[in-house]
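seq:
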Amino acid sequence: MKFRTPAFLLLALLSAGCSQSGSDTPDELGAPIEFAAPIVVGAAEASRAQMLDALPEGEVFGVLGYCVPVTTLTEGEGDDAVSSTSPAYSAGASAWADKKASVMADVMYAQPIKFDGTKCVYRNADDTYYEPARWYTSTTTAPTDPATYRYTFIAYHPYGEGYFTLPAEDAVGAPQIGFTMPFESGIAAAPLDPTTVRDAMMATVTDHMRAHGTVALRFTHMLCGLRFQVNNYNTSDPVTIHSATLEGSFYRSGTVDYAPDAPTLTVDPADTYTGTFTLTPGEQTVAANSSALIGLSDTQPRGTAVLLLPEFEGASEGTYLGQGKRLTIVYSFQGEENQTWTLDNFTIGRRPVQGNLYTVNLSFIGRQLTVTFNSAADGDTWAVDPDYDGDITIN
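struct:
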């Protein structure tokens, strides 16, 4: 089946480069669409380098914009069928729930927006300027006033790094947006670097009207994080961490579907990547009566966090964050050199929440190593699983 480029998309592109004085067609565009400084929801105590609690200056996100739905006309049959679309301006004021099955990205498509520290601008990471998207204005051929048009904006972060797969620019219908972690399927040949994973977030604003002014985006996180802290409660002896790794099979991809009443992320449990995350850039010593996050450095002031895509449908408590998980610590303590400690198939004792950063506490108390989890979001602490007493004796 062949598709023709919609006439209203061509007109919108032309109007971005020139203006026609006195034009009163439905495609005449008005004032620029502006975005307020975005808000990032959640991620309390988050690491700025990995899980963001605010967009830093210079950060870029992408936006899809929808307003006027289309009607589709098909001429011919079989391989000779040709489909064309035309804008249904009379439905521009319809609510998103009523028109999303027949929308196209008529307002903006994969538009890079940069946060410059105080406001959002139409620029990419290289500071290339883009002509702003604009509100629909006057119309004489449609029975509705464009002032009543309702717009929907879908934003995603990071922009242009392979995390998100967008629907085609001429796709019709409620968008489905693919998401992929930055690792290849299958078994990784080299250690995985957790610091390369960007914080994946999305924001959606529906039924926004021109009179509402600037578009306020509230980003929510798609991933949740694990980080690791050593607590040395002994009064005289330091603990040296020689290495710390997290291995397992982790979920790699999913799809965000806007057809349901609320956007739904469905993770593909069969698409996994298997490997070992290296948590420490080198040896790390924790002095007596002190604590330190594993991976603590000048670039990682809150330690190394492993950001993971959770999967809930059909998963059990032990597989929410992956399968076959093993935490391995090689340490020296009280004269015992290069001791290896492992924790297999651990759970965090509850359903993880996207945007939360969970801390695995490895506490050296006398001759025992106690393991507990806590969430940075609510500060509570619980055992590694309901049947685990938390005490491991160091032999």
